[in-house]
Amino acid sequence: TQNPEWELVKVFADEGISGTSTKGRKEFNEMIDRARRGEIDLIITKSISRFARNTVDCLSYIRELRAINVEIYFEKENIYSSDPKVDFLLTIMSSIAQEEARNVSENVKWNVQKRFKEGVPVVNAKRFLGYTKDKKGGNLVIVPEEAEAVRLVFKMYIEGMGAGEIAKKMMELGYKTGAGNTKWLPTTVLTIVKNEKYCGDLLQQKTITIDYLSHKKVKNTELAPKYLIEDNHEAIISKETFELAQKIRKDRQQSFV
């Protein structure tokens, strides 16, 4: 820092994380906690939009910090948060930043849906038992030892075992889940059984983000179009096996109604 009267506590930076929500901003939240503990009395930030793009969050934190005598200096706007008169200006400027964030979110959503319509797959292979992505094209490729576990789950399910029994058996045999855990749950088994990717198909937009501020995702139940790409990648099980598993799953659901 250039001011001899200031002592630098730390540079807090959440790289690559959206400012629309403070929940996932580890560095930001640490900064606020340290300010609450009295370890910080001045925060210098590049701009209001860098501090928080959510108007409610922005004003809430400013007022909370002001109440405990912690000041924020916004370099781009050249204003301090200590003067109550800046609240109106902050509301306007934060709202503009929030609207910019909404536009970015809409553009991203439009681009993703455009890729769906054109048949360009968008797949997250993390924590996905049985597959990984190749380095060149990002295509799904089978992981042989994991595929063995997937086939076994379907085999036991079709033979009449329940999800709880299968989970217990998979743990006894020492198989790991897609997340690398040794503990299997009934929900882990059912997630595998319901996943169409294992028969080579790819259903896109199963979930949808309904709020660009909270980034909350919900199950897409007729909220937006879904896109099915058949034979998108190499299958681990046959379509017949998958369809039979779905029939068994639905029959079991109906038996509990």
Structural class: alpha+beta
CA-based shape: elongated
Radius of gyration: 25 Å
Number of strands: 9
Q: Report mean pLDDT, rounded to a whole number.
A: 79
Low-confidence stretches: none
Query: Helix count?
Result: 8
Please give a structural write-up.
There is one protein chain. By secondary structure, the chain is of the alpha+beta class. The protein has helices spanning 26-36, 48-51, 55-67, 86-117, 144-158, 163-172, 186-194, 239-255; strands at 42-45, 71-74, 79-80, 131-133, 140-142, 202-204, 207-211, 216-219, 227-229. The strands form four sheets. The chain has a three-stranded mixed sheet with strand order 1-2-3. Strand 2 and strand 3 form a beta hairpin. Helix 6 crosses helix 7 (186-194). The longest helix is centred in the middle third of the chain and has 32 residues, at 86-117. It starts with 25 loop residues before the first helix and ends with a helix. The mean pLDDT is 79.
